[in-house]
Globoside alpha-1,3-N-acetylgalactosaminyltransferase 1 (Oncorhynchus mykiss), 351 residues
Amino acid sequence: MRLSSNVKPYVLLLIVGTFLLLGYVYFNFFSERLNRDILIDEDQKSTSLSRLVFRSRIRNMVSPEKLLYKQPSVLVGRTDVVSVTPWLAPIIWEGTFDPVLVDNIYKPMNLTIATTVFAIGKYVRFLQDFLDTAEKHFMVGFNMRYYVFTDRPHDVPSVNLSQGRHLSVIQVPGSNRWQEISAQRMEIIQTTIERQIRGEADYIFCLDVDSKFHAHWGSESLGRLVAVIHPGYYEQTRDRFPYERRPASTAYIPMDEGDYYYGGAMIGGFVEDVYTLAKVCRTQFEEDAGNSIEAAWQEESHLNRYLLYNKPSKVLSPEYLWQDFKAKTKEVKVIRFSGVIKNYAEVRSNV
Ligand SMILES: CC(=O)N[C@H]1[C@@H](OP(=O)(O)OP(=O)(O)OC[C@H]2O[C@@H](n3ccc(=O)[nH]c3=O)[C@H](O)[C@@H]2O)O[C@H](CO)[C@H](O)[C@@H]1O
Ligand SMILES: [Mn+2]
């Protein structure tokens, strides 16, 4: 069929118009998806992340719920503390996040959080308070799997767990040296991730048992690799940090290096990232042992060395690791987790 020369321009216009319309729809669809990904696109590195991003895309496409919250300000916020590291990882302080908003991002992902805790020898006595207070404050509303490592499985208290929360007791050998118990945590965390946790959880926290939760500790703490600033040293210069200072140790940090002094009582992050950390710290600890060296603060020293060269993607302020004997300071508005006062000579098998 031949078109008359009068009709030709209209057909051409129609074709161009259709392409423009398709282009517009296509562009809008993709820019919308990109905007939504930014919500949690914190760390592109991890393999688990693509799974999380995928889940969040699905959620956002299926049910875009409306959430009302206070408008974030570009100009007004906390000025008494630093809330970002020089490598642009957030430092989490009260007043720098909206817990409802953060939960709204993470809760629909149906995440499972693993928590490892060691209670060897007399330290089983700390379990009851640790678990009771965790149920009140720690990752409330999330699926939780506690892994309790102990040499006294019969002394593990029975605790009422909320729905979606489970506890497994795993028997491990005791030891006569507290330094060894503290340090062997890395090895046991590594092997339990290999055997079990990898298939059961998205994120993991490894915590000291001689502690209690006192206030909200939630999804604002989730990230690829999460460390906590030790409450005893955050006002000190780096040369005063109790890093391992002997060059013969694999945990060695020279006086002119170091970011923060991180506490050994908490490490967290994606299961795979914590796995690598535990594996490296364990290997280096063993290498030292082969050379008859034990780092100044055992696995805490190796942890600090690891984090100096593998920067955490999120840093928790000392609100997340306080010590009961320490008076609250003005910048700490909330104490969320704190080590109890203990009689070292009485609870430890050696001093
Ligand atoms: C607040 C903080 O950052 N604490 C760290 C600090 O001293 P801490 O005095 O907090 O060490 P600690 O005695 O609590 O030992 C660490 C953990 O090992 C376990 N445990 C220890 C001894 C024992 O007989 N049975 C037992 O189960 C238990 O889970 C305990 O919480 O230095 C240690 C170095 O080794 C660890 O890095 C701790 O995490
Ligand atoms: Mn402790």
Observations:
- The chain has eight helices and eleven strands.
- The chain has two domains: 8-62, 91-347.
